[in-house]
Amino acid sequence: MSGIIGYGAYVPRNRIKVEEIAKVWGADAPSYKKGLMLEEKSVPSPDQDTITMAVEASKRALKRAGIDPKEIGAVYVGSESHPYAVKPSGTVLAEALGATPEVHTADFEFACKAGTEGMFVALSLVQAGAIKFGLAVGADTSQGAPGDALEYSAAAGAAAFIFGNAPLVAEALETYSYTTDTPDFWRREYQYYPQHGGRFTGDPAYFKHIMGAAEGIMAKAKMKPSDFQYVVFHQPNGKFPLRVGELLGFEKKQIEPGWLVPKLGNTYSGSSPLGLTATLDISKPGDMILIVSYGSGAGSDAFIFKVTKRIDEVRDLAPKTRSLLDANKNYLEYGAYAKYRGKIRKAD
Amino acid sequence: MPTPSRSWREIPQRYRLEAGKCTGCGFICFPPRLVCPRCGSREFTKTKLADSGKLLTYTIIRVAPHQYVDQAPYAVGIAEQDDGTNLTAQIVDCDFQDLKIGMRVKIEFRKIYEEGEAGVILYGYKFVKE
Amino acid sequence: MRNVAVIGVGMAKWGELWGKSLRDIFVETALLAIEDAGLDRIDSMYVGCMSPGLFIGQEHLASLLPDYLGRNPVPTVRVESACSSGGLALRQGFIDVASGMSNIVLVGGVEKMTDVNGHEATYALGTAADQEYEGYHGLTFPGLYAMMAHAHMAKYGTTREQLAMVAVKNHDNGSKNPLAQFPFKITIEGVLGSVLVADPLRVLDCSPITDGAAAVILCPLDMAKRMKKPGVRIAGSGHATDTIALSSRRDITWIESTHLAAQKALAMAGRKIEDINLFEVHDCFTIAEIMATEALGIVKKGQGGKAVQEGLTSLRGRFPVNPSGGLKAKGHPVGATGVAQAVEVVKQLRGEAGARQVGGAKLGLTQNMGGTGGSSVVHIFEAE
To answer: Which of C86, C73, C5 is nearest to C39 (CA)?
Structure first.
């Protein structure tokens, strides 16, 4: 029996509202808010990046896991905004936690599902008996091109999970991955901003893969939507996860605890992982949770977790995800936001 | 631009706040040293600084050195950590008017600066409100 | 140990000297001192300069300066102790003559700061702090002193207005000094309205970026007497160090190195602080002067702010501090400052200070400090 033994979340304190972005580009804020079901998104400070958020989320996961970092056998960071193109985020994370030198480290990349990829591999190594504990983080400080639809939602956040055999907080019952080559959203090397296929990112991309993974894992586990207390989907905007849930036969109340995007934005590799930490925060022993991520390019990873009694002992050992959304918020104007996100061209 | 060795050498202190505790008088040296400044002893045990403390003083830097220009204005302070050691660091995620001498702070891992667009990224500790 | 006299002083106008290089500035000033001394021989030179390397990419001043002064092969030492480089150069020169190793020693100080932009100058000055544990966190010198000010204000009730009064007093004095960089008066409102640099310190709390040099000629007192020159003797010299990082100090509101250096200098001179008629102290920031007056023992701990408010340290006060205008009005070409303080005291003791003259001056003290008090050098001069 393997699964999650610790989890942690990190969200930066800065926010920018949809109205603030819309005003600069002459867009109609109410229609964006309604269409995306999004009000505001998180913005990293200039001194925050994928690595810094990964470190803090991981420290919180360690607090809940209660283990010696030296026993971590693998450290994986999944992101599409790794600070370096060549030099892993994972080594800084492993060093900061004190897990070095006897540890396997790798960075993952697969658009928004890089986080769950790391989770998949860390869990597998634990299940195989190759390592005692494995840490996987999904973190991003994603960039949206100025004036593009994605600028309203591209946000920042991190979620960390430590996998092991004991003491289990949530047992991993099943995993399933669904992958095709689908160019819905991509970024070429040396390009600053990604590009996307507009409406092509809907049915043939997000919906096809999430549904493929969800139906695949439920068939494998011989379960149906009503067997789950909660389900977490990747959240590029507020609408898509509710719609895919509806299509699959889930109810809104199953989706809501992990539905963070209206006040957070799309944290890319952190998106479904943060939905999972938020869900774990309010779950009870025995709850079944389904999580299905989505990464453009394209693919979905699905996991089924069963919450154990230990959730009651660990949930309060670190900040809860919803409290990070609500606490100490600092609203930015577009100018400060553009400066923080490096969108202003400066002299060499 | 210094070679990465200079900052790499300080990683145990900057990432994990590793310090040395003098076996002679118990004084905690951060960073670790070869000679205890209080009693002159040369023997130390490895320790880590406490994660939290209280602010002894602070300022808000408005005219910054060139690597920090984009971060200005930013607050910097000296805190007395709960183990009695003083530590200097920036104070972030706190509105300037909320800064107070005596305020409780704790450590968070943050980026310190980047050596330009192509150079190494340097990380370290900063204070946030506890 | 022989008695040592200062028989020549030299200083030219300080400021942003765009047309002059470091060599020009040094040589011009050294020649003034040599002329004032009326001696042509130099046995050795000590020159304080904080960082020619960072400011102008030039090291090996120990060869460059005697070369351009036309004095090779005179042995020369460049002395560095951040902002106390000049005072420390003076001490080394004093020891050279007092020990009998040399007879005629030129002590100079020079800094050329305007060949880099403001940010780079801030960086260069910042190297006086702990690079890895203070500079690394984005601290600047104004920032470090601002933290000292903040703590001093919280502990002793020193006020923002009292800090401003230091700057106003020093500009009052500086307005009477034709060589000062800023020979004009300012007001308290002006200080309090100036731009914030590092809260609570504002632009007018801070000494400026300056190009300049100062020089003195030392010789045995007997030689000065034989030459019938107005004798000013170096009666005491003290030097002490403290931790480089402010956070390592036992008390961040107190400058222990100045206190110890002053005690040593006073002991050597056989004097008490009350005997001293005028002081040139290191007002790199207004708070530094307040803390220096406390560490020297002019006033009790924590009373420095009150003292300046009550006029104790004004030109006509009981303990005039910085009759030259201090670093604030005179300027602060880092390596030159400690020597310029000596130039002012010697002029005062000779009765040559013009409108700034402190009446009946017989004993003067200079206090030159490095960093946030990581080093301090104190000298006491006595009119013979």
So the answer is: C5
